[in-house]
Design goal:
This protein is an alpha/beta fold and 370 residues long. Helices cover 40% and strands 15% of the residues. The longest helix has 18 residues, at 200-217.
Amino acid sequence: MSKEIYKDIITPFLDRRDSETWHDRARNALHLAEATPFTLKLLEQFAYQRERFTHERLRVVLGGVEFDNPLVVGAGWDKAGKAVRSLYTLGFSGIEVGSVLAYPQEGNPKPRQFVLAPGVVLNRLGFNSPGMETVAKNLERYRESGIPIGISLGKNKDVEPKDAPQAYAVVAKRLYYDAAYFVIDVSSPNTPGLRELQDKAPLTDIVQAVNGAMDEMGGRKPTFVKIAPDLTNEAVNDVIEVIADNGLTGIIATNTTIRADLKAQYGEKWRDEPGGLSGDNPEFRRMATEKIAHIYRETGGQMEIVGVGGVKDVKTMLEKIRAGAKIVQIVTAIREEGTTLPGRINRDLVDWMEKEGVENMSEIVGYGKS
């Protein structure tokens, strides 16, 4: 399906319907596509130019994990880990599953996901999760796939802050053998009190508990902390210090924003609506990119950074990479741009690299040619 047909017909159709319902249907359709080699091959016809594309120039190593291109599905798109192989077939190099909680949780009351404008979404899902046991069962089928799977760790909303370290650690232990890397998500705006766990003392406790769980299982895997775009640079520096002091790998920047003025751009009724805004909003994209650039400067480029926030094409992807991100994640734009998105961006990126004389991704992280 061409980008034009998708944008002219499919996207307007989806924009008029309940966003979460159709997201679930899309994910379930991708899950069904994994049923047989034939249906998986059929799915490839929906990729850009009807094939999964990658190129030697695109290879990236993040925290010791090799990705065949720098595009990863961010947490929130496949919370249950049911469509990993399909998303990989469409052109993504890895999938971050979750956030995963110890116990099943319904999340906030519906409706809780809203399309404010083409490519811009407000969500207050509230860590809806089938729980770690269901996710573990779902991920068993991918054990021998070679696809890098990240596990985003969260906590149930009824877990008190003092018990949060153990809540994160138990999920890390349960999904240890399925994870290429872990992410400590303390930045979702939709679980009361969660963002307070980004503060230095509670974050240190969580990080040390997750490290301890990995040590018990046989060794530490690459681990990141996901931060909010609304943090001050001073608060980001505290996160950097916790990561450095405890031997973690890096930072994922950023989650959604709660800025009321950005919500109000789409109508005053949204100004005080609970939830986080994501997607194709220029100011949100800038906020995320500035956080990446700040982390890169503060750490002298020595800390691994994953960039996420408003990426929809090769231009917006390069903004994140040139700011200092090694890997870029996409969530909201998958819905708006369709199944050809990863292949289109990766081909455009190779074309750009060839034109600019760039041989590999490491040449442009943090200081690339414009």
